[in-house]
Structures are given as structure tokens and as C-alpha cells.
Amino acid sequence: MGMGRAGPSRAACAEPARRTSLAAVCLLATLGPLLGSEITCRRLLTASENLEGFQFMTMRAVEERAVKLQFACWDGYGQLQTPCRIQKCTTDFVSLTSHLNSALESFDLEFCKALRAYSACTYRNSKVCRGNLVYHSAVLGISDLMSQRNCSKDGPTSPSNPEVTRDPCNYSGHPEAREHQGGEKTDPPTYLFCGLFGDPHLRTFKDHFQTCKVEGAWPLIDNNYLSVQVTNVPVVAGSSATATSKITIIFKSYEDCTDQKVYQAVTDDLPAAFVDGTTSGGDGNTKSLRIVERVSGKYIEMHARYIGTTVYIRQLGHYLTLAVRMPQEVAMAHEESQDLQLCVNGCPSSERIDDNGHLPLPVMGHLVPQRGSARPQSVYTLETATTRCHEKMLLKDVYFYSCVFDLLTTGDANFTAAAHSALQDVESLHPRKEHWHIFPNSEGGGVDKGNKFFVGLGLVFLILVFL
What we know:
Layout: E1 3-4, E2 7-8, H1 10-13, H2 19-28, H3 38-42, H4 47-51, H5 59-70, H6 86-97, H7 107-124, H8 133-148, H9 162-165, H10 174-177, E3 191-197, E4 201-203, E5 209-211, E6 216-222, E7 226-234, E8 242-251, E9 261-266, E10 280-281, E11 289-295, E12 299-304, E13 309-316, E14 319-327, H11 328-331, H12 342-345, E15 367-368, E16 377-378, H13 382-392, H14 398-410, H15 414-429, H16 457-466
Antiparallel strand pairs: 1-2, 3-4, 3-14, 4-5, 6-7, 7-8, 8-9, 10-11, 11-12, 12-13, 13-14, 15-16
């Protein structure tokens, strides 16, 4: 069967033996998704009155008819219901077959591969399209065509057109395929990094480094695709420093790539599954959203392919750390009312512990009780804290000085591991190697002068010691 660029040929659609199902295929080539309820749409889209009527129409006439019919599929509130994306499946099928020549020996092989890809796409849409008549007509049409061409249900589905072979639920495949009308490729997406660890120390999407109180629940990220909220609790009595004891992440429902998934971790409970017990989202063997457990109860990774986002969560000691990498266009897809996002705008000035880079350090000689310990542990001195942190981090960047501050504040050696792991996460997820390390007093590294961290840390501490 020959295929034109606009869809199946009029001759093919006019064959009486299969005119109803193929008429639906002809319709789908130009018809947008009919999104209303089955009862509402059935009045205008019945097999006896409408689908057969499309078989002799030109594609232009089908398109005009589609515009009129689409108004029948609005719900009672004047809003389109959850979209059935059958149109995308059909558009891909038409693109895959429009260049095929039925006279060539390879026609049946390539046509069957395209049909299997079409069938797989309809299967992925089965949930949201179950009440859509056009979807069911397409499923029947695919079955008819596979029978006529003796296509097996199992077999390769990789089409010859690379632009259409990309997985719509794989964000990393989009930049190579997105082109301007003139054929010029767009720039690859810009990725951003945000991390939270320790007392807590925050690295924003703009590579600003801050230390904050933010006690209680605070949003790190809140956009159209993802929400991340952290809950921080005081670390030691008499200090304004806090650490993260709970992380809640919501992956919002996105087309046919995933349903909404909620993840929650709390101290001593870092699960390798979402709250509904599943470990992935999306259909097919390659999941568009999945959780990978790296160290049982201590370290998990979350990979959301459909939005190009990776999340690392660790438990070190009694507290949690988090690192996120996501495309800029995803991170910035939010309303103005969603302005309270620590990863986007940093901590409010009233919540900052550091004051233009200077931190209030604890007075030496105090004892800090360790959680679960019958007796308090001695605090570190500046020398011992520096030595301990230097064992893990050779470069004296902000992660090194965060380690020193946390040891002096809490006396908890687990914060050394937290700072070291946070730096490892930066090296794994941050897209620009030259920005991995942020140094106090440096003019570069993407750090705003007002946010330079730990300027004069040693001097301030020594003054406190000798007063």
C-alpha cells in the first residue's frame, strides 16, 4: 500500500472491505486528539454515521471536519479533559511510512516495523485513551493492517527515520532533534545543579553558596514538573544551625511518561521505592522514572529521563543530604507565585547564618551531646577540625570550610562525610567542571561577591579563642 505525505492514499482508504478501520487511520493523520467523554463524542463520532464518511474525503476535508468535531469533545465545564495523545502516535506512523515505496522489496519489512512502533505507542496511551473512540478505531486499524501485511506482533520496531525514532519520554534525546524551520539546530540544553547538606549548606542553581537556618519545612524546588521539600531540625541546643531530617519529592504526572509519583525519606528510613510501593514510573522495559538503590538504607538515586533530571539522596549520620541536576528550562518552568524556592533564589536574608561570608563560630571548651550517646563528646578545636576535614578534602574550598564549621558547631564526625559526599555529588552532577570548586576570596567560580563563604574564618576563630 503506498503512502502519501499527508497520510494514507484515497485509494487505500476507499477499499470497502476495510473502510471503517482505515477511515479512522485517515482521520487520525490530521485529526487532533478528541478529548471528551465517550458519551459526548459518540453523537458525532459513530462508526455508522461518521467514520465511514471519511473514507472518500480528501485530507483537507478531513482536517476541516476535524475542527468542527473537536468542539463536541469538551467537558461540561468548557475545559479539555486529560489529553489522549493518539495524534502523536499517528503522526509518527505517517512520518515513518510516507517515504516508503510499495514497489520495493523492503516495503513490507519497513511497514511492519512502523506498525509495531504505532502499536507500541497506542499501548502506552491505553490508560488515558480508554474512553476515546478514535483511539479504539486506531487500534482496530493497526490490527487490520498487520493482518493484511502478515506482520508479526513481535519484532524490531526501530524505524529508518532517526528524527522519529527518539523516545518522547527521554529528554536527553530532544536537543539533537529540535531544529528551527530553516534547518538550524538549537543549542543543547543548559543543566543546573543544586545541593543541600550539613548544617545546612545550600548551593543554588546560580552556584551561590549559603548557610541557613530554615528550620521546619521549606521548598527547595517547586516547578511544573517536580516539587522537592525539605524539613530541617535543630542540631544542637544553643545553636541556630539545623540539618535535614526529612525529604519529600513529588514527580508530577507528565503526558504518557509517568503518573504522579511521591517519594519520602526520613531519618533512618531511606526507602528504595515510592510511597505507593513501586520503584519506577512509565510503561515499557525502559522506565522513564526509576529509583536505584546504591547503598541499602544509605544512598539512592532517582532518574527522571522524561525531564532530564537526576536526584541523589544520602543519609550520613542522623541527617540527609540531597543533590539535583536538571535542565534550566525545567527548573525555571514555574509561576511567579512559586518564588520561594531555595534552589532558585537562595535562603531569605532572615534565615541566613552567614553574614557576608562570616559565620558565628562556637566558643571553645563547650561539650556537645551526641544523639544516642550517654555522655557528651568533646568539641573539635580549629586545629583538629581542620586536620579531620583535610583528610577527606585536599582543596580548601567552601566544602572544606563547611566541614570545619560543622565539626566546630556539632562535634559530629558524620558531617565530615556529608561535606565530602556533597563534593562528590557536585563532581558527578554539576555540568561545568570549572565550577566544581568554589574558593573563598576568589573572584571567579560563579560565586557572587556578596556570597563568598568563610572569608577570614581562621582569623575570626582565633580572635574568639584569645579574647
